[in-house]
Structures are given as structure tokens and as C-alpha cells.
Amino acid sequence: MMTTPRLTTLSNGLRIVTETMPGVASAAIGVWVDVGARHERAEENGIAHFLEHMAFKGTARRSALEIAEEIEDVGGHINAYTSREMTAYYARVLGPDVPLALDIIADIVLHSAFEPREIEVERGVILQEIGQSHDTPDDIIFDWLQEVSYPGQAIGRPILGGPEQVGGFSRDHLTGFVARQYGPARMILAAAGAVDHAAIVAQVEAAFGGLAAQPASAPEPARFTPGERRRSKRLEQAHVALAFETPGYRDPLVHTAQVFATALGGGMSSRLFQKLREERGLCYTIFAQGAAYADTGTLTIYAGTGGTEVGQLLHLTVDELRRAAEDMSEAEVARARAQMKAGLLMGLESPSARAERLARHLSIWGRIPDVAEQVAEIEAVTTSAVRDHAGALASGGRAALALYGPVSRAPGLATLTRRLAA
């Protein structure tokens, strides 16, 4: 059963959006802040993620252990994440425990203690996390691809930051970032499931209503720049990631770009999986995925292959991309649309996914689109539009390439872009 979301905006600009799900016993609730790695200064790279970690290390009212115990005493769980444009603090609990979850979330967002000892403990944890990512080729390759696609820009820097920056963060750095970036107009309190809108508004007003309104500064515009990063190393596999600039999430063509990414490499029936893995046996893993930001987006193609196969794999990958402009079929596009619609509608069965949807759509468009509207936008993507999009990517010559492992036989970016345009 579909319900209508309810929205209330406090006088300081903080937005509260909820959606009741009849017959659901649990609820998801959280604060989504329109602040992420993209809002950091160069010397602050990694501080948004560091701040997310510190939220669970104690407040003026609760120790780190008490935060964990209080939420788990009622069978709930609490978590957070940092992306390039957003930080989220959220919990999943049974309906009667929503006031407790909201109280804890408000506490960690507004009253984190940032104790120096806890900062040092968590610094060590994050440095280990960075080290682990550097030791994981199919993780670090995506950071390299982002950096080479957006060089010298906040949107291109790694979300975790680097050891040098993370090693220097102090309590003053954390409190300064919060004071500068965590204004109420950038916050969205979203909840879905067994929730009561009026009760949540009253509690949020009491907790967050005293925050002073402040203007939100926009991040620097993104500038996608073709480039290449290559590191040869003795590994079992060559890791390859190729990126093309695509529309941002406010662009009318964003759905076309997403349908194309799904058709190209979004599943076992996709072109890349069938042609390069199933027919040629050139790799175990290959996929394409789309990412969208406020003013840019990327189509990313990733594969792990052997050092002797990497050249052939890359050549065939760009051949499939170029060919898609000519012969992407109605059946492929219909299958991709069905996958996207199913993902959207299946997600609505989860309070967590629905709360996330409320927050992200309100952040992007300032409103919550009806599900039928979203489905119609997906269904409106035509095969002709997908072919045109593929053709624009192939002929544009604007790509970025990251290679890691036994990649001495891999062609360079210039060779690949010439092949695309041939």
C-alpha cells in the first residue's frame, strides 16, 4: 500500500520528512546532512569521514559504550556513512523505540564530545582503514579513477582522505568543520515505517530548533578531465577501470544514462558480461555502473583480468561501447528498464531504503517525486535515446583510465579513444 510522505520545515531551515508504512512493525530514522568529501578544503580531505566515525565515540550525555548498549538493548542498530556529497546517521528500531533512536541520533549529531583520547583511538582505526583500501586493488582503483577524472578538485579526492591529512586532525579541526558546514538548512530528518509525523516533528523541534540558521555554501563546480593513471605491480590480476562523463542527477538525461549503464554492464545478461566473460572468457568480473552528482556524473566500467588478456579486454570493451550506438536492441533496453523499475519498487518494501529515498530526493529536488512519476521517467527512455547517448560517449573522446597490476601490455587512453572514434 502506497502512502503520501509528509514534510515539515522548521523556521531555521531543517526539513523533516516521514512516510508511514501500514503493517510494518519497524522504523528507519536518521539525519542526512548535505555535506561530504566534496565540501572539504584540500587540507581537510577525509575530515567528513573522520567526523562520521567520531559521532559514535561519545557525547556529553553518553559514552561510546552507552550509545551502543542503548540502541542494542531494544534490538535496534545504528550506523552512518559518508559519500562525496552527503553524510548520514541513521538507525533501525521497532516502532515504539523511535523516540529513543531519534534522541540518540540527535545527541551524536549535535553533542559529540570529540575527546582527545577518542580522537587518537579513531585516528588509528581510520589509518588502518586507509591502509586496507590501499592493499585492496579492486577498491583503490576506483579512488584512482575518481582522482584522474577530477584532478585537483574536492570531488576527485578520496572519501577516506590520506594518511597525512588524517594524521593531523585535531579537535579544533572537527569542531570547526561542524560549525562551518552543519547548518540546519543542510539537514534532513527522514523516517519511514511505523512512525508518527507529529510526534517526530515535536521531538526534532525540541532537539534541533535552537540551531541558528546559516547559509549553505556551494562546492566548486566539477570539471571532468580526461586522464590516465597506471601502476604496474606483480599481482595475480590486472585491474582496469574506465570512466566517461555522464549527466548529473538534475539533468533530464540522467535516466537515459542509467538505463544505458545497466544494459551495458549491469547484470549477467548485459553486453559486457556476455561478450567478454561468457563468450571470450577474458575475465571473471566485469560490470558497468552509473554515478550521478549535483553537476556531473560518470559511467564506470571495471574489470579484473590477466596480464596477457588486458589489452584484448580493453579493446573489446570500447568496441562494445561503440557498437551500442549502432545496434543496442529494444530487448536490451526493455530489460534494463525492468531491472531499474524492479530495484526501485522492491526497495520500497524496506523502511531503511524508503527513508533513504525520502532524504535523497528531498535533497536533490526539494520535493519527493511520486513513485509513479519515477517509473514513468524510466519507462520513457527509448532505444533511440540510449543509442544516441552511447554515440555521444564514444565520439566525445572524454574518458579517464586507471590501471593497476600486470598492466604493461594494456593500451593507453589515447589508443582507446582513437579506437572509440573510429
Task: Give keywords.
alpha+beta; 422 residues; 5-stranded mixed sheet; 6-stranded mixed sheet; globular
Q: So what's the overall shape?
A: globular
Q: Classify the helix fraction into a percent range.
A: 40-55%
Largest sheet: 6 strands, mixed
Q: Whole-Å distance between the termini?
A: 51 Å
Radius of gyration: 23 Å
Query: How many β-strand stretches?
Result: 11
In round numbers, the mean pLDDT is 96
Uncertain stretches of 5 or more adjacent residues: none
Strand order of the largest sheet: 1-2-6-3-5-4
Structural class: alpha+beta
**SSE sequence, one letter per element:** EEEHHEEHHHHHEHEEHHEEHHHHHEH
Write up what this structure looks like.
The radius of gyration is 23 Å and the shape is globular. It has helices at residues 47-54, 64-73, 98-110, 116-134, 137-149, 163-166, 171-181, 197-208, 254-265, 271-279, 310-327, 330-347, 351-365, 371-379, 383-396, 413-421, and strands spanning 6-9, 15-20, 26-33, 77-82, 87-94, 187-193, 227-232, 238-246, 283-292, 297-305, 399-405. The strands form two sheets. A six-stranded mixed β-sheet has the order 1-2-6-3-5-4, with helices on both faces. Helix content is 46%, strand content 19%. It is an alpha+beta fold and 422 residues long. The model has no long low-confidence stretch (mean pLDDT 96). The protein contains 16 helices and eleven strands.
